[in-house]
Amino acid sequence: MLIKDTLGVRDKALEGRDGSSRVGKSGAKVTSASVTDSASAAEDTVALSNRSKELARAHEAVVNAPDVRRQKIEELKRQVANNEYQVNAEQVAHRMIVDFLGELV
């Protein structure tokens, strides 16, 4: 079983790795055939939690998400550069209090 299949990750660095060869403890390349022929060869396994799988999927979604806020960001940059950007202190304070109280619950 491949880790990338378990996580649902499609990373170019992982593509082309089919597990047909590995590096042994001595640093020499070991092929799958020689490993299976050896009676004393042990296979390493990795168990990933559901949380790590969710994080990997979330990371992939963020990386592949389109940049839909570019126009808003450019407008805010323009306002800041022209000293036109105004902050509503009451809204900021209200949001900070709501967020803080939400963390307590």
Polypeptide structure, described:
With 105 residues, the chain is mainly alpha-helical. The chain has two domains: 1-65, no CATH class; 68-105, no CATH class. The protein is 51% helix and 6% strand. The chain has five helices and two strands, in the order H-E-E-H-H-H-H. It has helices at 3-7, 32-37, 50-64, 70-81, 89-104; strands at 21-23, 29-31. A two-stranded antiparallel ribbon has the order 1-2. Strand 1 (21-23) and strand 2 form a beta hairpin. The longest helix is centred in the C-terminal third of the chain and has 16 residues, at 89-104. It is elongated. It starts with a helix and ends with a helix. The model is unreliable at 13-21 (pLDDT under 50). Residues 44-97 form the Anti-sigma-28 factor FlgM C-terminal domain. It holds the Pfam family FlgM. Keywords: Bacterial flagellum biogenesis, Repressor, Transcription, Transcription regulation.
